[in-house]
Task: structure prediction
Amino acid sequence: MTEELIIAGFGGQGVLSMGMTLAYAGMLEGKEISWMPSYGPEMRGGTANCITILSDHKISSPIVSEFDTAIVLNQPSMDKFSWRVKKGGMILYDSATVLQPSNRKDIDLVDIPAIQEAMKMKNQKIMNMIMLGAYLHLNPVVSIDAVLEALQKVLPEKYHHSLPLNGQAIFRGEELVHERNEGVMLVC
Result:
């Protein structure tokens, strides 16, 4: 198994921490990992993305031009990265921040109302964990237990009070995919 993933959005949306959490969880499970962040000088509010690779085999290069999956948190990222998803791959995107999803027919497009759910949970900052939970439900490259353990390592100690809420957000993301697949939500 090798999963080449790009996570992209604005700085401040938790793009880099989502990728780092996945990479750390992979490391906890004994996988080969690569995490390569990229962000503009303005950080918060500027563009940010990271490439995370998880594999059962050695990773030859952290630089890839096509991805198995893209997790997209804003329209500029959809416009920039949708064409770089491999045929048969997947784009998981926030339905409130991406108004014009890709029109590609050779990939799966999955819309998740992550920001709306985060607001219902009274904390916009957990939107990234809702997306992570949705992604892991669709593609369980690492276990939820490993992700929850990784969060304890990735989040600075001053934010450890938010670990239970982050866990709830991950499980809510899984539920949203399940509800979507049951026909409760609109399908692309």
About this structure: DSSP finds six helices and six strands in the chain. Residues 2-181 form a domain with the Pyruvate-ferredoxin Oxidoreductase; domain 3 fold (CATH 3.40.920.10). The first strand starts at residue 2 and ends at 10.
